[in-house]
Amino acid sequence: MNKTAMPAQYELASLGARRKSLFWRIHFWAALIASPFALLAALTGILYIFTPQIEQLLYADLDHVQPVGEMRTLDAAISAARLAVPAESSLRSVVPAFAPSDSVRVFFMLPDAHNAHASTDEHAAHRAAPAKTAAANRSARTAVVYVNPYTTAVLGMHTGNERFGAWSKKLHSTLLQSDSWRWLIELAASWLMVMLLTGIYLWWPRNSEKGLPQRGASGRKAWAQWHGFIGVALSVMSFVILTTGLTWSKYAGDQVRLARDSIGQASPQAPRNLTSTIIDGIAPMTWQAAADAARRQAPEIALQLIAPRDRLGTWRVSSYDPAQPKKRVDMMLDAYSGHALFYSDWKNQTAFSKATGIGIPFHRGEFGWWNQLLLLIFGLGIVFSLLSGWVMFFKRRKTGSLGLPKLLPGAWKAMPVGGWICAACLFVAMPLLAISSAALATIEIFLHYRNRKAC
């Protein structure tokens, strides 16, 4: 090829054309990096959002009971639960029955997962036997025991990720790998954000364009129109889902929490030096007394209780239903009087806490059928967007070529100042994006010099 031909060929390329070629290139790289894991995340996310219905079918006999007479004390239910786990197990927390048909949930840390289902009481061991896939979770050290609050009969037990909700959450967040693999999903989410921003730029109508799918279009043109239209139509949902997902990721999450704390938007926290006041002649509250004291002071929502660690410790109480963020509550109760030494409800939350308090349950589909329906449409839309992108790629790609979108000379110089500022903000917020972008820049430099030699 003539070495002077290429510059002359493109010297009249407009700023808009060079800029568009740059964003096409970035959009392609983002899709290449994110698509495999994003597709898995979308499919596993669709499965995860139907957790309430699936768990209702699987665990109705554990979560719900038939009300008969008066409830026994919470202490009696806990005593029964202790018989379903090894004697060395430590009690972590308890969720008392909220509705009349609810069971009591007692959470333990197991000393030895191999004996997670051991029981010193034959009847309790027999009732705990239906717990699903115990043998497959011998490495788990946590367990929840379900107890009938009216009879204190042990209904069953789950360890580790045996429960479908825990399993599907781990599948969606780590693909059933250890937490050290969470970075893969975070990397995909980071590049999905880049796909979203560059995709909106590429779709944005210019001149006489309408940006809507046109009748009569066929082949790659039709795929491109629907790919862009659906991607942009889902852009608001995409931004919410990606943002809320990144808030509890490892590296980007650390950056979000650092920014949150630096501007004073962290949730109210109880002082670390809170202690109970010992009252002569008054014994510390029992579990039932603590539950009653908490119920008198908390909104009408299911609560989770954690007992004091010692005589001067306090009871920790928090809401257990994320689907009702406006009833969120966190309390520290005096172990003798039951008075709240610390109290924080929805009104005390910061703007950031309120946003995540609504955004994260929405991400998980915990607000009911309408939330699940929106997420189902979103998930299917994402699957279509990803697959249609690859359909267009293979329709465009010439045999024997890499299929990279053509990058016009001077394209990188055409990046607007706002684009560089946006990129810098994204790099700070998403460290994995910055690291992978550096690797990508190395590849681009190599391709650039290889093409120059070829010319």
List its traits:
15 helices, elongated, transmembrane, alpha+beta, 455 residues, 8 strands, Iron-regulated membrane protein, transmembrane helix, membrane, PepSY-ass_TM, 4-stranded antiparallel β-sheet
| Distance between the first and last residues' Cα | 5 Å
Structural class: alpha+beta
Annotation field: number of helices: 15
Specify the biggest β-sheet.
4 strands, antiparallel
Mean pLDDT: 87
- Count the E strands: 8
Q: Main sheet: which strands, in order across?
A: 1-2-3-4
Give the SSE string. HHHHEEHEEHHHHHHEEEEHHHH
Q: Outline, from the CA principal axes?
A: elongated
- The poorly predicted ranges are 1-12, 113-139
Rg result: 28 Å
- What oligomeric state is this? single chain
When the domains are counted, the total is 3
Strand content: 5-15%
Helix content range of the residues, please? 40-55%
